Amino acid sequence: MLVMDNSIITPPSFLIRAMSVVTLVILTLMAISEVMGKHLKYSKFWNVNSSGKSATKEVKLSSRTGMLMLYTPAFLGGLASFWIFPHQSFRLLLLTSALTFHFFKRDFEVLFIHKYSGGVMLDSAIFIGALYFIATVTIIYFQHLSEGLPEPRIDLKYFGMFVFLLGISGNFYHHYLLSKMRKDGEKQYKIPKGGLFDKVVCPHYLFEILTFWGFFLISQNLFGLCCAIGVTFYLTGRSYVTRKWYLSKFENFPQDVRAIFPYVF
After folding, report:
1. Does a structural domain hold residue 65?
2. 104-135 residue pLDDT tens
3. Domain assignment of residue 143, yes or no
4. For 157-216, what is each residue's pLDDT tens digit?
5. How far apart, in whole angstroms, are the C-alpha atoms of residue 219 and residue 163?
6. Domain for residue 258, yes or no?
7. Contact criterion met (CB below 8 Å) for 85 and 92
8. What is the DSSP string of the chain?
C-alpha cells in the first residue's frame, strides 16, 4: 500500500501510478497548448486556425450535439458503475454519485440552459469526451481497488462533498448568468456581468476546478489528485486565453477583471 502524508491511500499498482502520471502530463500539455495558441475547438475557439483548404477537412458539429458528446459518455460510465460495483463503501458511493451527478448536470445544461453561437469540431468533441470518460471510469475503478484498505488518517470525504457542492452550484449559477446574456436568436458575445464575472472572466471555470478538487477530497486517491491538479492547469490556461480574447474583442473590457482567480490571476 502506498501512503502519502497518511491522507492519500492507493493500492500498490503500477497501472494506477502510470495512469496518474500520464493524465497529469496530458492535462499539463493541454494547458501549455492553450497558452501557446493551439486551442481545443469549442466555445469561442471552435473555428480557431480553421481557414482555407484545411477547414474543409474538419467536421463541425452543432454546439448542442458536440457538447453532448463531451459529457454523455462520462455520465453513462458513472451510471453503469452503480451496476458494475453494486456493493460500494460509503466513500465509493459518494464519489460515484458526485461524478455521475456532475456529468448529468452538464448534459442538463447543454439541453436546457446554454445558448449557443458557434460550434464544436468533431475531433475536439471525440478527444474531450474520451478524456472525461476515461478519467471518470478510472477514478471509480481505482477507488474500487482501494476497498478494504485502511481509511486515511485524515478523513476528508465530507469536506470533499462540501467542496464539490460549492463547485457544482457556483458553476451552474454562472452558466445560468451566461445564458441570460443573450435573448433568443442572438449569437453575438457580450461582456459577462453579475456574480463573480465582475472579478474574473471565467468564474465558471473556477468553480469547475473546485468540483474536481471535491472529487479528489472525496476519493483521497492518487489518480484523483492528478486529475485535480491537471484540470487546474488546463482551465487556468483556458481562462488566460479567454481573457485575452475578450480584451481583443471589446475595447471597454475592464482591465481589473482577472482571468480566473480574483485579484490574483
Report:
1. yes
2. 999 999 999 988 777 788 888 999 999 999 99
3. yes
4. 999 999 999 999 999 999 999 999 877 667 778 899 999 999 999 999 999 999 999 999
5. 13
6. no
7. yes
8. -EEETTTEEE-S-HHHHHHHHHHHHHHHHHHHHHHHT---SSGGGTTTT--HHHHHTSPEEPHHHHHHHHHHHHHHHHHHHHHHS-S--HHHHHHHHHHHHHHHHHHHHHHHT---SS-EEHHHHHHHHHHHHHHHHHHHHHHHHTTTSPPPSS--HHHHHHHHHHHHHHHHHHHHHHHTTS-TT--------SGGGGTBS-HHHHHHHHHHHHHHHHH--HHHHHHHHHHHHHHHHHHHHHHHHHHHH-TT--TT-BSSSTTT-
Q: What is the average pLDDT value for the chain, to the nearest integer?
A: 89
- Alpha-carbon distance of 34 to 5, in angstroms, equals 33
| Domains: count for the chain | 1
- pLDDT (0 to 100) of residue 88: 85
Give the structural domain span for 152: 2-46+59-249
pLDDT at residue number 121: 85
114 vs 217, more confident: 217
Say how far apart CA 192 and CA 32 lie, in whole Å.
Answer: 26
Question: Is the distance from CB of 177 to CB of 194 less than 8 angstroms?
Answer: yes
Grade residue 48 by pLDDT with cuts at 50, 70 and 90: low
Q: Which residues have CB under 8 Å from 71's CB, separation 6+?
A: 103, 106, 107, 110, 129, 132
All cell numbers assigned to 100: 455521475
Note whether residue 109 is domain-resident.
yes
Contacts 24+ apart (CB under 8 A), 85-93: 85/140, 85/144, 88/144, 88/147, 89/147, 90/157, 91/143, 91/151, 91/157, 91/218, 91/219, 91/220, 92/140, 92/143, 92/144, 92/147
